[in-house]
Structure formats: C-alpha cells, structure tokens
Amino acid sequence: MAATDIARQVGEGCRTVPLAGHVGFDSLPDQLVNKSVSQGFSFNILCVGETGLGKSTLMDTLFNTKFEGEPATHTQPGVQLRSNTYDLQESNVGLKLTIVSTVGFGDQINKEDSYKPIVEFIDAQFEAYLQEELKIRRVLHAYHDSRIHACLYFIAPTGHSLKSLDLVTMKKLDSKVNIIPIIAKSDAISKSELTKFKIKITSELVSNGVQIYQFPTDDESVAEINGTMNAHLPFAVIGSTEELKIGNKMMKARQYPWGTVQVENEAHCDFVKLREMLIRVNMEDLREQTHSRHYELYRRCKLEEMGFKDTDPDSKPFSLQETYEAKRNEFLGELQKKEEEMRQMFVQRVKEKEAELKEAEKELHEKFDRLKKLHQDEKKKLEDKKKCLDDEVNAFKQRKTAAELLQSQGSQAGGSQTLKRDKEKKNNPWLCTE
Length: 434
Description:
The chain is α/β, with parallel strands linked by helices. It has 2 domains: about 270 residues, 3-Layer(aba) Sandwich (Rossmann fold); about 70 residues. It has 11 helices and 9 strands. The strands form 2 sheets. It has a 6-stranded mixed β-sheet with strand order 2-3-1-4-5-6, sandwiched between helices. Strand 8 and strand 9 form a beta hairpin. Helix 8 packs across helix 9.
C-alpha cells in the first residue's frame, strides 16, 4: 500500500473526544511564543523608487534610528541593489532587519530593463532558500532567511498619474513580493491634489491588473482596522529624523517657511498608518504571505521545470520516489542517447581524420617522387657538366703537352744551327772580316 493511501486513511478516522481533566497542551502557544522570542525574528524590506524620493529617510523614521548608508547619486550606469542587515532590539524581542534599496532606479535614459535586476535579486533569494530546503542535512532554523517580505514602492508626487516605469515594474513584481505602494514626499502637493492622485493611482493599478498587497481581513481581531486601511492605499507619507518642539513636546517634523509638517500627525500624512500596518499589525502576515504564496509559486514552477509533479497523467497521486525513478530513467535514456550520438560522431571524425591523413600521405609521396626525380635530373645534369669539364681539361692537357714538345724541339733545332755557324766561322776567317 502506498504511503499516500495510508496517510489518507489515518486522516479519515479522526474523532473528537472529551478530556476528563487538565492535560497541559494548552500551554503550546506560550511555548511557541517563548521559542520564537528566544530565536528572534527576521524581516526584509525592499525599497523601490527613483533616487531622491526619501527612501533612506523613511526607513530611519519608521524604525526610529539612524541606519548607516552612503547617499546615492544620479550617475549610476544601471540599477544596483544595495543590501544592509541590522540587528535591532526592542524590549526582549530581537529583529534582524534587512533593508534593500534600488540604487540608480529610474536614472537611465533607457529605462526599459530597469526592473530586471530587481526581479533577478528576488528570484536569487528564493533560489537560495530552495537550495537550502532541498539539502539532505537542512538547518532552516539557523538559516538567515533573505527572502523579501515587503516591497515599499515609492511613487513620485507628480499629482498626475503613474509613470510607465512604475506600472511595468509593479506588474513584474506583484507575483513575487508583497507590494505596498506609497506616495513619497506627499507634502509636495496639496490635499485636494493628493486625494485625486490616490484615486488615479488606484484606478491605474486596477486597470493594468497590478496586484498590490491587501491587509488581511480574515482575522476578526484586525479585520476592521485592516479593512479601513485598505481603503487608504496608497499611503501618502513624509519622512524626517529632525525633531522640533511643537507645543510642549518634541516631535518629528519638517519645517517650511509656510509652516510645519508633523510626521506622526495623521491629519498631515499617512506615516502612522503605514507604521501600524507594516510593523505593528501585519508584519507576521507579510512573512507568512511571502512563504505560503510567493515562495510556493516559485518553488512549484522550479520543481515542475525539473520534472516533478503531484499527479500522473491519470490524475493519480505521484510519490517522490516514483517521480525520481521516472526522471532518473528519462535522464539515463537521454544520457545513453547522447553517448551513442557522441560515439557515432567520434567514429565519423576518426574516419574523416584518417581520410585526411591518407590524403596528406599521398600528397607527401607524390611530392617525394617529384623531388626525387628532380634530384636525379639535377644529378645527371651535374654529371654531364663534370664529364664535359673533364674532357676539356684532358684536351687542354694534351694541347699543353704538344705545345711543350714543339717548344722543346724548336729550342734543340735553334741550338744546332748556332753550333754550325760557329764552326763555319772558325773554318773560314774571312766570314768574320766581312
């Protein structure tokens, strides 16, 4: 019997029975709280918006501290994501807060691909968690979860409509992260313009099918306040770390020539609403939605790409073992097919190489024969020339010998005539007188 069938039968036989006395498992919530507090919590915020909209200032205001960070410039060649993690402590609760900001977003002339680095960053965090989850030895309790739990999308206070960059980016992100749109520096436009701007933004988001995060209303304890706050989206916020004395109290505010804007005054902006919804009421729901909705969607798509399914073509449950075996057999078949293709390709290349070598050998033999014949012809020519030279040398020697012989004979003849004349003179003295 398959394990899935056994599990189904176990679940079908559940009955409710009364207890005769106190057992103690009603302390489980307290145990869970104590364990969670001892382990601490993590929360990751992604701030998306153009440079100069006050993203860093709002984070400082939200968490009532001063986060260290370098100011961004408008000269970035592309969009870069800068991540910083901080350990915060409030009462006995620890929070590992990660703030990710988009440096250079919207500063380029060509903004067509500005959303891609953001999507890739979010997917990279999902992939890192999935790889940790698929390990044989998992340590998820000690793993630093870097998945983005909330995306604060900063909208420029133009008072007209959303930019195409904002619509495209939010549409690409709505299936990957919980988007909370906020109008940054909302004190730049009047209240009437702000009301119309909110209505315009909501209308454009609905008409373009952008799914923003809705505060949950299924929990009765927060259903009323969350339902009211959903109607106030997008929040119009102001950030300031400067404290001014207003009346008898020091309050965070911004001083202008025409007056003072109080950050925590709900008549001036929605900062308090944002803080209530983001941190004090729905932080755990944001974490849960990230895991149960966005991460599960990413995980399902990745596992389906790898060939894992819940059911077979007959809609019957598929066990992991069966899926693994089917995928393994498919992989082995593909591997064997590729191995055969590579073997045939290798044999073909060997044959081609042998043909090339034989052709080269044939050419070398032909070249050798040509060179050998040429060498023989040259040798024959040299031998003929040598023979001619030897004949000429012999002829020259013969002529030389003949000339020397003639010269010798001539010298002997001349000496005989001189002796003859001397003898005649001696015999005839009158020849001397003459």
